[in-house]
Specification:
It is built from 13 helices and 5 strands. By secondary structure, the protein is an alpha/beta fold. The protein has a 5-stranded mixed beta sheet with strand order 1-2-3-4-5. Helix 3 crosses helix 5 (77-93), helix 4 (61-72) crosses helix 5 (77-93) and helix 10 packs parallel to helix 11 (243-250). The protein is globular, with a radius of gyration of 19 Å.
Length: 299
């Protein structure tokens, strides 16, 4: 079928990257493992006593979760093992396997704790409902500068913590399903529209950074380290002149490999080209340079 042909094409292109030593999204997972077989075997041996602790360590999910951590932490076995064990402790502490089970049983993002209070203030979607990126990756959109930042800052910490745990687990759940279908490593295409940004909003970015520090203390873990390699591409479009100020604040809280994937465009025409190169314009909302004019935000 056409879909199968496209899948083989994208996986083949990714496989060539794996053989060249560059792990990219859409690469067949087994080709990545084969290119690092000795290191992968050493990691399996190191984690032998821990691989019973979560559903993400079992069956077909085991290898894709291990590879994400290997890539995220540079294939250095001691560091990968430490971060992986931290993730397992996090999942045990907050019963994240139970959250995963509820997603498998059909729970929707709108059912997660804190959804309404967050999405009354957000302009975003976890998963673009009109379709996927050209390479069959899921798409995540947000109009960051239209967020109601004061409302978000007023959300109680316990609700905000539960929301982000459920949020990130949903994103990984979607990627795991994509892997099981394609047998290729998958990551989200994320687009952040900064149209209408103004300097007065920078103080809210600083507030976000402060909240991230406090959450790390409360949860006893850097939650982003529990979900490495969620994104294949990150586009920041309609970037304001002062974006460098914002980037300096948020960069320390973003995994280094994710930072490397960020592309920033300021002009509308170049922003449109960047987005439409990854997602067909018929599927992409007009705010992101596409032709789709229907409802796309999560409600």
């Amino acid at each position: 079928s056409t879909w199968q042909g496209e899948r083989r094409k994208h996986c083949r292109q990714g496989g060539e990257a794996a053989r060249g030593g560059q792990e990219r999204m859409n690469t067949p997972l087994q080709e990545i493992i084969s290119a690092h077989q000795d290191t992968f075997n050493a990691l399996l041996k190191e984690l032998e006593g821990d691989l019973h602790r979560s559903v993400v360590c079992k069956g077909e999910l085991r290898d894709v979760w291990l590879v994400r951590f290997c890539i995220g932490f540079d294939w250095k076995v001691p560091a990968v093992a430490e971060k992986f064990r931290n993730m397992l402790s996090f999942r045990e502490r907050y019963k994240v396997d139970d959250i995963r089970k509820r997603y498998e049983e059909g729970m929707q993002p709108s059912d997660i704790p804190g959804y309404k209070v967050h999405h009354d203030a957000y302009m975003c979607t976890f998963l673009l409902h009109t379709g996927q990126a050209r390479d069959r990756s899921p798409v995540n959109l947000e109009q960051t500068c239209k967020f109601k930042f004061a409302d978000l800052a007023a959300i109680p910490e316990d609700i905000a913590d539960q929301y982000i745990i459920h949020n990130l687990e949903y994103h990984s759940f979607v990627l795991d399903k994509a892997y099981l279908e394609s047998k290729c490593l998958k990551g989200y295409v994320k687009m952040m529209d900064l149209q209408g940004a103004h300097m007065s909003q920078v103080s809210w970015v600083s507030k976000w950074a402060s909240n991230s520090k406090h959450r790390k203390v409360r949860l006893e873990v850097d939650i982003m380290e529990c979900y490495p390699e969620l994104f294949s591409k990150v586009f920041v479009i309609h970037s304001p002149m002062f974006f460098s100020v914002v980037w300096k604040i948020i960069k320390p809280f973003i995994p280094a490999r994710t930072c490397d994937k960020v592309k920033v465009e300021s002009s509308s025409s170049k922003s449109k080209v960047l987005c439409c190169d990854s997602v067909d314009p018929s599927l992409l909302p007009k705010e992101f340079g596409g032709d789709y004019t229907g409802q796309w935000m999560m409600k």
